[in-house]
Amino acid sequence: MNEILEYIRKCQMLGIAEGEINQQLRQAGWEEGLIRSAWAQVKSGAAGSEVAAGINFPEDLVGRGKLAWLWQGYRKYAVITAAAIILLGGGYFAYAQYASSPERIWQTATRKTAELKTRHLSVQGSYTDQPSAESQASGGFAEFLQGTGGFTVTLDTEGDFRTVPGAQPDFNLSSTAGFKVGGFNISVELESRKLGQNLYYKVGNNLLAAFFGPQEDETQKPEWLQIDLGKKPAAGQADNFFQELFQKLGETQIKEIQEAFNQVKLIKPGKLLGTEALDGQKTYRYQATLDKEALRQSLERITAILAESETEKLPDLKPLLDKLEMKKIEVWIGKADRHIQQIVIETSFPSALNGFSKFEEIRQARIRDETRVLDIGRIDRAIRLFQESNKRYPLAKNGLPDLTDGSPPLSSYLSSLPFAPTPPDGSCSREQNFYWYEQLENGTGYKLRYCLGQNTDVELAGINEISAQGPVVNQEGSAVEQTNPWLNIPFSATLNLQIKVSKFNEPVTIEAPQGALDYLERQQNRQYSERELSMIGQIQAALELYHNQNQIYPEKLEELQKETPDHPALLTPIPQPLNTTGECAGIGPFYNYQPSNDRKDYTLEFCLLDDYQGLERGIHRASPLSGIQ
Questions:
Q1: Same domain, 80 and 124
Q2: Of 53, 239, 584, 621, most Cβ neighbours within 10 A?
Q3: 307 phi, psi to nearest 5 deg
């Protein structure tokens, strides 16, 4: 407040109008309420005397109204003098606040950072999760981590980015991902590059080695894999989430998602915390906030783009985002170049450990409801079969049908009575959770009641009833939708990020690695290798059955298709090899099957297009006596 008062008084000394003073204060980021409060003090008696004390104009000029004439005549010089005083004198604070206005600086910084041709990026992140007492009691991994203090996942990434007009930037990154639990630490190294339409990546040290020490094949060097971002997987190649997503998204959808990310402004600048040197550069340090509404709208737009159809019901993300607590967002912006140089974020995040227990709790509740519906269906079918035979519905005993009643008795159709699973779910009480049966009107009718925790496809949550006429509409039940487990995840984990940007517009070299393997082609080769081994296994199993029946192996594989009076065909049709060209040339029909002279042994030849299950790529020979070579 004192700084605003000082600024207002100095400006009044120079004759600057109130409206212009207010405009300068607003541009400097001062709140309207503080400005009004300052003017109230200035215009009060005490403040007025202090202002007057600072203005030493002759009384005759003031008294005769000549001050206004003097100001009009020398306005240009007064403005120049005022600027000099503001810049060099006690009014420097006001100018500094205007020059470092969060909104003004942030707009300039985001624009200039986006316009960079190249930059160096360094990211350090950590995710820390601790099991709650509730999740530990539920068992599983959370119980296993009891006493360890939870776990921490870390990611350190560093590398260069280069802007590509009309496309996503090229980059060259080296990363190390780590996992820490108790005194146990493992890490995995990853290199990735993007160059044009191609994405390359290489996983360094072996995960198995991180857990169990060096492996036998440690001499094999990590391979670079290549993914052509402009090439969609062929049918049958989508064997993981990445490929399924790749197949699903069209070029238009990808551009829409990119546009949604580019348009959203998630971080709002706030308070100027001060100035400090960062890696030798003078910077403004700001406190910022997350615009949750902008984040929600962006995520909803992306979700709508990814929806299967326009009529698909989209999830309500607001309850989830309301749990997100941004503990710290700070931004460092260069004073000279106006580039974003560092962002530090600390926020709550979904807990994997405690979220799993919530998922499991909801899953078990659904299983209990499904069990109730199945149980009631079994009881109802048995009751109706009993009625067809006995021309009445069975008697009740202790709230359930009497298994001994009738001839034939109810036990002929239902060997034992099921009991409702516990605990009760939803709004169902302990008493309502019991199945309840009543015989009505001397056996001409009945009621069968049960209670559900959530809606099913046909029943509402709450007490439901079946009668001789069929299901009774649940008048008192409430439409309790099946719980979305994602909305129940506790945000008890902590995510920390430190992002540093440097080396603005310096030369960057990004090259494609030599000998990179096509990822989709490799996946297809692995699928072919898997199928090839599977078919070899089928043939060998049929050959062993033939040998058991005849004490020798067949002269030709076609004999496995023949039926005999004593035995059916052993294998029909006989699989044919998939890999027969290129390095697999020479693999003929029936896998080059060749029995030994005494037909006590045989060989099959097959070819793998990739290393698979301990077998190297290339041609192999299978034999019952020698194994696979």
A1: no
A2: 584
A3: -60, 150
Q: Residue 430's closest CA among 439, 438, 442, 420?
A: 420
CA-derived radius of gyration, the chain: 39
In this structure, of 201-210, 238-247, 431-440, 547-556, the range with the lowest mean pLDDT score is 238-247
- On whether both 54 and 93 belong to a single domain, the answer is yes
Question: How large is the angle between the packed helices 45-53 and 2-13, nearest 10 degrees?
Answer: 50
**Report field, pTM of the whole predicted structure over 0.85:** no
Q: Which of 437, 472, 502 is the last residue of a domain?
A: 502
- Residue 526: which CATH number? 3.30.700
Final residue before a domain boundary, out of 452, 474, 502? 502
Quick one: 421 and 524 in the same domain?
A: no
Q: Residue 567 falls within a domain, yes or no?
A: yes
Tokens at 212, concatenated: 């169990």
Which residues lie below 8 Å from residue 29, measured CB to CB, with a gap of 6+?
A: 97, 98, 101, 102, 103, 104, 272
CA dihedral 208, 211, 212, 216 (to 10 degrees): 20
Please report, for residues 25, 29, 134, 271, 412, the alpha-carbon distance to residue 103 in angstroms, rounded to integers and kept in the order given. 13, 8, 44, 10, 80
Residue 298 lies in a domain: yes
What is the CATH classification number for the domain harbouring 147? 2.50.20
CA dihedral for 87, 89, 95, 96, sign (positive or negative): positive
The set of residues, in sequence order, having a beta carbon less than 8 Å from that of 526 and lying 6+ positions away, is: 609, 610, 612
* C-alpha to C-alpha distance for 477 and 452, rounded to whole angstroms: 9
> Which run of H or of E encompasses 245?
helix 241-248
Instruction: Answer yes or no: do 538 and 588 share one domain.
Output: yes
Q: How many domains does one find in the chain?
A: 4
Q: How many residues does the chain have?
A: 629
User: Are both 225 and 333 inside the same structural domain?
Assistant: yes
| 213-268 residue pLDDT tens | 444 444 456 788 888 877 765 555 544 444 455 545 555 555 665 565 555 567 77
33 falls within a domain: yes
Based on the domain organization, do 498 and 479 belong to the same domain? Answer: no
Give pLDDT tens digits for 41-50: 877 744 443 4
Structural tokens at position 336 = 């000279």
Q: Indicate if 314 and 370 belong to the same structural domain.
A: no
Range of the domain at 529: 517-628
Listed in sequence order, the residues at least 6 apart from 554 whose beta carbon sits closer than 8 Å to its beta carbon are 543, 546, 560, 595, 599
Question: How many Å apart are CA 101 and CA 95, to the nearest integer?
Answer: 10
Per-residue 3-state assignment (H helix, E strand, C coil) for 334-402: ECCCCCEEEEEEEEEECCHHHHHHHHHHHHHHHHHHHHHHHHHHHHHHHHHHHHHHHCCCCCEECCEEC
Asked if 264 and 180 sit in the same domain, the reply is yes
- Quote the strand ranges of 225-310, DSSP E: 225-228, 267-278, 281-290
Query: On the CB side of 205, how many CA atoms lie within 13 Å of its CA?
Result: 16
Q: Is residue 507 part of a domain?
A: no
Contacts of residue 28, defined as CB under 8 A and 6 or more positions apart, other chains included, come to 94, 97, 98, 101
Please list, in sequence order, all residues whose beta carbon lies within 8 angstroms of the beta carbon of residue 605, skipping any fewer than 6 positions away: 586, 587, 591, 592, 619, 620, 621, 622
